[in-house]
TrEMBL record:
One of its GO terms (molecular function) is electron transfer activity. SUPFAM superfamilies: Cytochrome c (SSF46626). Pfam families: Cytochrom_C. This is Mono/diheme cytochrome c family protein. It comes from Actibacterium naphthalenivorans. Keywords: Heme, Iron, Metal-binding.
Length: 145
């Protein structure tokens, strides 16, 4: 194969990948900067008028195990962790199994610049399921899906 053609193809793929990363890394939320107050909520979150019984259990578990990084109401924390109430985490892009696997095994950074997420030890599958229900109900209240 022509070396110039291969080099051009590699350049196009690399630039396309960087462009896609730039699109998804920001997704309407400014990247954390030195000027951003560490820990500040990254998005405004409207809560549903009422949560299901399962989502209420999930809210309790989320507040105990997830909010220290992902913020109150999953609004993210500048310089700490991303908001889960964001279109990147809608079910068609990050399904429920993605949340389950991230809680169990951690997750490699791929949309945001916060670094890898460590596993969350001690959560049962039932607690993770309730957390997912809570996040999905809040996402729905915010027009995510």
């Amino acid at each position: 194969m022509n070396a110039k053609l291969v080099a051009a193809a590699v350049a196009v793929i690399a630039l396309g990948g960087l462009g896609a990363y730039g699109i998804f890394a920001g997704q309407g939320v400014a990247a954390p900067t030195a000027q951003a107050a560490a820990g500040r909520a990254m998005v405004e979150v409207a809560l549903p008028a009422q949560l299901s019984a399962t989502a209420k259990l999930g809210e309790t578990a989320f507040n105990a195990r997830c909010a220290s990084c992902h913020g109150v109401n999953a609004a993210g924390r500048a310089g700490v962790a991303p908001p889960l109430i964001h279109k990147i985490y809608e079910p068609g892009h990050h399904g429920d199994m993605s949340f389950l696997m991230a809680a169990r095994n951690g997750a490699r950074a791929h949309h945001w610049r916060f670094g890898d997420m460590p596993p969350v030890p001690g959560l049962t599958d039932a607690e993770i399921g309730a957390i997912i229900t809570y996040v999905r109900e809040v996402q729905r209240a915010n027009g995510i899906y």
